[in-house]
Amino acid sequence: MRVQPFVLALLLSLVVLFTPAAGVPTAPPGTDKVVHLALFALLAFTGRTAGIRPWPLLAGLTVYAAASEVLQALLPLGRSGDLLDGLTDVAGAVLGLGLYAALDRFRARAV
Predict the structure, then answer these.
(1) Other beta carbons within 10 Å of 36
(2) Which residues are listed as membrane-spanning (predicted)?
(3) CA 35/CA 33 separation, integer angstroms
């Protein structure tokens, strides 16, 4: 079990999700969805490497995705909550879990 990458991914997610809007660089439309997808894929993948079981990890990341969008809407960050961002977060988590499972199967066959 390697917990440090997961902790670093969590810290990165806090910076990415809760940086005030004034500190977020401008980017082409849709870039935020790619960032959300990649961030939650990273969280899921590193969560699995930390030994967290898939279903509890997916449930926790789903709650985190929803909470982050609600907090973005409520906190004075100049940001807004977005349902599509939350759904993209969950899709990223599923992607990360799938990548981990595929890599795990590949490693099992290589042994």
Answers:
(1) 26
(2) 33-50, 57-77, 83-103
(3) 5
Reported as a single tens digit per residue, the pLDDT across 2-45 is 999 999 999 999 999 999 988 778 888 889 999 999 999 999 99
Distance CA 23, CA 77 (A): 10
pTM of the predicted protein model: 0.93
Tokens of 107: 């490693």
3 state SS of 93:
helix
Residue 79 Rama label (left phi>0; alpha psi -120 to 50; beta): beta
Selection from 99, 88, 78, 77 nearest residue 30 by Cα: 88
How far, in Å, CA of 40 to CA of 35, rounded? 9
Asked if residue 45 lies in contact with residue 99, where contact means CB atoms within 8 angstroms, the answer is yes
Q: Is the dihedral of CA 45, 12, 61, 83 positive or negative?
A: negative
Q: Tell me the residue type at 66.
A: A
**Whole-angstrom distance, CA of residue 56 vs CA of residue 54:** 6
